[in-house]
Amino acid sequence: MNMHPATVPSTDNPLLDYLGIRLASVGDGRCTFELDLEPRHLNRQGSVQGGVTATLLDAACGYAGLPAGPDGTLGHAVTVMLTISYLSKASTGRLRATAQLTRAGKSLYFASAELTTDAGVLVATAQGTFKRSRTLPEA
Question: Which parts of the sequence belong to the Thioesterase domain (predicted)?
Answer without folding.
Answer: 46-123
